[in-house]
């Protein structure tokens, strides 16, 4: 199952030098997840402390575990939006078949 996730990094209670150390660990985890295909795509929003991602999770439970405790910076993240999404090519095929 694919999920669109919009994440805001909350830095109210962290000093900037520690933020970059923790964010470096987070980037390493994200690159590993990208290589493994669990993280389908990820984008840093320019000029903001936000990340937009497409995550491939086996279930809602797995997604919850990833977002709540599986990310190195989980304790600094606010999940702003989560939406199930599907591959557009598969949608287009359904349209062409008229959902039959």
Polypeptide structure, described:
The structure is a single chain. The chain has helices at 16-36, 60-70, 88-96, and strands spanning 2-9, 39-44, 50-56, 77-85. The chain is of the alpha+beta class and 100 residues long.
Topology pattern, helix = H, strand = E: EHEEHEH
Distance between the termini: 21 Å
Low-confidence stretches: none
Side-by-side strand order of the widest sheet = 2-3-1-4
Please compute the radius of gyration using only Cα atoms. Answer: 16 Å
Number of strands: 4
Mean pLDDT: 95
What features would you highlight for this structure?
single chain; elongated; 41% helix; 3 helices; alpha+beta; 100 residues
Summary, kept brief:
This protein has 3 helices and 4 strands; from the N terminus they run βαββαβα. The chain has 100 residues and is of the alpha+beta class. The mean pLDDT is 95.
Outline the secondary-structure elements.
Elements (H helix, E strand, L loop, with lengths): L1 E8 L6 H21 L2 E6 L5 E7 L3 H11 L6 E9 L2 H9 L4
Antiparallel strand pairs: 1-3, 1-4, 2-3
């Amino acid at each position: 199952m694919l999920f669109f996730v919009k994440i805001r990094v909350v830095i109210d209670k962290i000093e900037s030098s520690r933020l970059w150390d923790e964010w470096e660990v987070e980037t390493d985890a994200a690159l590993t997840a990208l290589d493994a295909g669990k993280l389908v795509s990820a984008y840093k929003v320019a000029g903001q402390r936000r990340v937009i991602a497409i995550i491939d999770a086996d279930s809602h439970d797995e997604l919850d575990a990833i977002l709540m405790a599986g990310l190195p910076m989980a304790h600094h993240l606010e999940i702003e939006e989560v939406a199930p999404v599907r591959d557009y090519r598969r949608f287009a095929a359904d349209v062409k078949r008229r959902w039959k």
